[in-house]
Amino acid sequence: MLIVFLRVVILYATVLFFLRILGKRQVSTLQPYELVTIILLADVAAIPMATTGTPLANGLVGLFALLVASYTVSFITMKSTRLRAAISGRPTIIIANGRIIEDAMKELRYTINDLLEQLRVLGWPNVQDVEFGVLETNGQLSVVPKSQKRPVIPEDLGLETKYEGLPTPLVVDGEVDVQNLRRIGLDMQWLRDELGRFGVRRPEDVLYAALDTQGRLYCQPKSTKNGAPST
Amino acid sequence: MRRRMSELVFYGLWVLTGLGFAGVYWIIGAQEAVADELAAKLEAAEAALLADDWPGASQLIADVLDRWRRVEKRWALHTQHEELDAVGEALLDAEALIVLRDVRAVAPLRLARDRLLTLPRRDRVSWENLL
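^ Those are the sequences you sent over. The predicted structure of the assembly is below.
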């Protein structure tokens, strides 16, 4: 029992470590070769997990082989566009100028129902509103709406907009991000003074605080045990 | 810097793979040497018991069992435990039959020798093993 527990922990840590090396794409939108890696990772890890008669090294070598294979394929696809197309495929236009391209749909074995479903999910229930619909290599549909149908943006109205960058988190779950504080040229004293305005004495009592590019501080204190804010 | 890191990881993984291959070849070589040594002793034990030299056969099988118990622990790191158990069982059978001075000890002796010699061969990179 203890051996199974320890093996699971070792293999879990190994798979997690390998997924971190493989990168963020692996856990969001998957390319075909990434999907293969994910499917096989689980299987390769599962065999030595419960079979104590199988050396753990066999499982670890299998996981390592998958890591090497997957990393190599992603490395090759980065370097060569031809191999990228061969391994991941190419995006296919399935709607052009508001018309469904039947040949492309047949080639992809993509049904009208699949297409309509994806269009509805993306918020474009009418095919005629779509200028281009592209089925990407990861299986997701991208839509370029007709110019008359797309949402109005400030530029269309000739409106000037202010710069909106990313807010800088300063306190997360009671912990001050000193690096962020320094990066924007502020110090702990400033933070304490600002938190004081929200009625918070210590940064430890803050759930989340961030400074936006307009200089406005957002602060949400932690709740007390009865659900009320701690201030 | 990040692009450089990606290349370093890529080359690092292949260097590790190369080292791993070399390591496996070294392990197989060491395993074969031990298996050959034990197989020779088992052959000698068989010859001894067929020549009615029971004390000699008993001494040889005891030597083999003693050596086997030491190497088995190391081999368990990379070999299926069931395969190791099968060798151990055959050796114990042979030992018991030799103590009883039973010539049927030849069968487990040959079985143990065959199983011992097969173990390292299973990890060799060959078409037979791949397919």
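Residues 2-50 of chain B form the longest helix (49 residues). The interface with chain A takes residues 6-7, 9-10, 13-14, 16-17, 20, 76-82 of chain B (CB under 8 Å).

Shout if you want it in another format.
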